[in-house]
Amino acid sequence: KAKSIGQNGHCFYTSDMEETSRNRTRVKSQLAGAIDRNELYLEYQPIYTLSDREITGIEALARWQNEELGQVSPAEFIPLAEESDMICHIGYWVFDRALNDLVKITQDTEVELTLSINISARQLRSDDFPSKMEEIRERHGIDLSRIRLEITESLLISEHANEHSVLCELSEKGYRLALDDFGTGYSALGYLQRYPLEVVKIDKSFVSDSLASNAFLIKTIVYMADMAGMTTVAEGIETPEQEEFLSSTGCMYGQGFHFSRPLVLEDTISLLKARQNSLLS
Ligand code: C2E
Ligand code: MG
Ligand code: MG
Ligand code: MG
Fold this sequence. Notes:
single chain; 281 residues; alpha/beta; eight-stranded mixed beta barrel; binds ligand C2E; binds magnesium ion; Bifunctional diguanylate cyclase/phosphodiesterase
């Protein structure tokens, strides 16, 4: 351990690992109070049909603004939350808030969107997850068919039996399941078949890297998903060229900065209204 004595006589660590670990502890302790302090909020990224650029759904993405730490990315705080049951509290908060917002969006715009929610493996470890989700959903009166749960690919090969059974229970209840970040994990084709998945989301790394080198892979994923009766969403579309290519492969849906960044609720509603108005005029 790289430990040294400072000029003022205090011990401090100079190794990067210690620094990182101290920072993690600090972020985690702030995160523990984030819901109570009302520091979490959601943004929504629209999902478009690639054929005619219609918005058919939105994905809820968690955001955290902390006084001491500033804006912290979910890529940083979600993995920390996943180390304990904190992810469960955050997960229920996200679902409750997103459904609340979905009711408002539906009222204000009269558009019936599908809502995608990201779910962590750890949330599926508790047996009462499906019933708690149902309680929240019923409270908001949102139809099951409008909700899509996004799980990451690595989850499918997990050894945890309970995650499997809870996932199947959710699907039997009628929740729609999407496989997020497809292509980044190691799942064999067989895994895809073992789950009642409706949607495969092609990871943005395939879309953003040189299209020429990934064209074959992307085409194969779209073809395979189609054969298995699933639809595909391409993540991370940033350019017109990427849109055009994805569209040419038969990929049905797209998401990315080229279409829209994630938006706060008010801006989501404004975007939907502006599109309606342009259709009417
Ligand atoms: P994800 O579910 O795969 O979400 C897509 C990520 O890509 C989002 O990052 C989104 O802002 C970003 N993105 C969208 N379009 C583009 C694009 O054109 N280019 C690029 N470079 N990026 C794009 P974000 O919001 O930082 O979220 C990161 C991850 O954190 C999510 O990946 C998801 O795994 C996790 N996450 C976010 N919110 C939640 C949540 O409520 N619960 C759980 N369990 N995980 C969450
Ligand atoms: Mg997602
Ligand atoms: Mg993803
Ligand atoms: Mg993800």
